[in-house]
Amino acid sequence: MPRILRAHGKRARLAAILWTATLLGAPAIAGADLRLVPEPASVQEGAGRLPLGGGVTIAVGNDDEDRFAASLLADEIRDATGQSPRIVNGASGSIVLRREPSLTSAGDEGYRLEVKASGATVAARTAAGLFYGVQTLRQMIEPRGIPVATIEDRPALRWRGVHDDISRGPVPTLEALERRIATLAEFKVNLYALYSEQAIAYRTAPLVANPGGAFTPAELRALAAFARRHHVALLIEQQVFGHLDRLLSLESYKALAETPTSGALAPANANARALAESLLAEAATYSSAPFVHVGGDEMTDVGKGQSRDLVAARGVGAVYVDWLTDLDRTLAARGKRTMFWGDFVESHPELAAKLPKDAVAAVWDYSGRESFEARLATFRGAGIDVFVCPGATNWSRVFPNLATAIPNIRGLTREGQKKGALGELTCTWDDNGDALFGLCWYPVLFGAGAAWKSGDYDPEHFRLAFDWTFLRAPGHDAADAIAQVASAHTILQAVRPMDATIELSWLNPARGSLDRQLLAMIGAPALELRRTQEQAIEGAERARASARRNADQLDYVVFAARRLHAIGQRAILAERMKAYYKDALENQRAPDKSGRVLDRLNAILGLLVQGREQSALLRDEYQRLWLAENRPYWLGNVLAEFDRDLQVWSEKWDRLRVATVSFKNGAPLPSAEDMGFAP
């Protein structure tokens, strides 16, 4: 999957500026008392509230799924009011949850919710519909009661999902994934996709997985069972076309690669195809969704190595279709539909009509383009079902670039609905391994809202509802703080082609000339960058003070703000150290200026200590946040970057300390070039 960082043109920068200004400065929507995500199809607000004093009862039938939904509702009431509702069998209570087979307008996942001052009823045809009605009711509960309202609701898309890269860095703990799934289910997400290159410990291919970095069959089955209880299906994506560089570097598998340096299996190699079919056959047993995703993006190597003759004889398109068809047979025999990334077929549109008719194209596009119609037309015109797959734009960045992600999710999901898409997957990617899921809640939950609501989903409605629905906090301090963190991308794009990428956090003014040159580019907006991140931290802490749930997830927002703040600080330190050393050089030969020279040198030493301390604090916090959601696997690779950064600060401090002592003993100072303080 090409998670490519592209430079943004003037048009994109203008859109980013307008988006940020809108998010930070928009007034509250008049009359929007109900803060709900997703936004229901129909809401009629009334007057008054259903009180939740002592003696609240929740009436529900004997079905285990419905009683589980009732237990979540009881927990919500207890958390909001301190009261402990009773769950009773039957159809009489303060709140009634009931199946209503005649409610055909609700479809398979819709519901009807009616709240009166005397009681509330949630009705649905199915367990899923009742579950989703309860999630809406939970968001309506406040300590002073439930607002009177009538809601009729059903989803726009059958499948509403999140795509989680677990293969190139962070591997979540089972507990963290369960929490994600339970939280996403509150927002009516019903599909969770795990992207694996070698993050599954296959029984049939034990060399695939790295120790400590893979899910066992028992873990995947337990996760699927947990997800099922929350009406979420687990979708396994196992790359079998490419992105298998680590696997194909092993002696046991290197002969299966298209070329000696390729991460792609060779379609001309029977053993390569057998491996792919074996992996997918086992993956099908773990995927509780009706699909298995086979990958298949970025097929750039096929035909360059051992499949050259086959491709020359039949054409790369025919080779691709034959292989996909074989994989489709393997999965169909196990009751699964084949999902595949659509970019190769989009570049060869004549192949669409030759694809297996039950296959599903995952059409990804992470841009903020105005229209996505052409991206879907190739498949829909050939009668192929599609998933639309926008992106959280979190990859290789300190924080998701919301100025790209929100319009992308909004536009692609809206277009998918128009074209009859089967579902939506909001994609998170972990390129370079320095990625934390806790940073992604805002775009991921926006995707949930966009996939459920029919038509366009208003980002302003989402902003005003985010704090309440995710944190149970009044106001919109957290949403505003998130916008301020994300504004770093717009601030930095004003002076450089790229946005706030991870690479910026490793620029060190104590290192070489390239780092100093790049930091000099950031110097102009450094103060603005620091101010906005300080405001973000303050806003996040205000939200934390009133949050009743998920307050710990604000730690990720604050960490991103501190990391971005440090980038601005490093740009400032670079200029100060350069100026101080220049002043020291200019005055070192004046006998009456030795005190001034030492003051300047000591000031630089102090700045170096400041930079090192800041880096150490970020390292410790990063490690804590990583372990709060991930296994220790791979963490050492990121900590090594922090350690190298710390070493740079320390080595420069040591060198300058030697120069300072030497100066005190009569030696001249090294040149600015020699000390690394030159422009």
Automatic annotation (TrEMBL):
GO annotation terms (biological process): carbohydrate metabolic process; glycosaminoglycan metabolic process
Gene3D superfamilies, alphabetized: Chitobiase/beta-hexosaminidase domain 2-like, Glycosidases
Residues of the active site: 298
Pfam families to which the protein is assigned, alphabetical: Glyco_hydro_20 (PF00728), Glyco_hydro_20b (PF02838)
Extent of the signal sequence: 1-32
SUPFAM superfamilies named among the record's database cross-references: (Trans)glycosidases (SSF51445), beta-N-acetylhexosaminidase-like domain (SSF55545)
Gene Ontology terms for molecular function: beta-N-acetylhexosaminidase activity
Reaction(s) catalysed (UniProt annotation): Hydrolysis of terminal non-reducing N-acetyl-D-hexosamine residues in N-acetyl-beta-D-hexosaminides
EC number, UniProt record: 3.2.1.52
Residues of the Glycoside hydrolase family 20 catalytic domain: 159-390
GO cellular component, one term: membrane
Keyword Signal belongs to the record: yes
Top-rank taxon: Bacteria
EC primary class: hydrolase
UniProtKB keywords: Glycosidase, Hydrolase, Signal
Domain (Beta-hexosaminidase bacterial type N-terminal) ranges: 35-153
KW Transcription regulation (keyword) present: no
Family under the similarity heading: Belongs to the glycosyl hydrolase 20 family.
Protein name: beta-N-acetylhexosaminidase
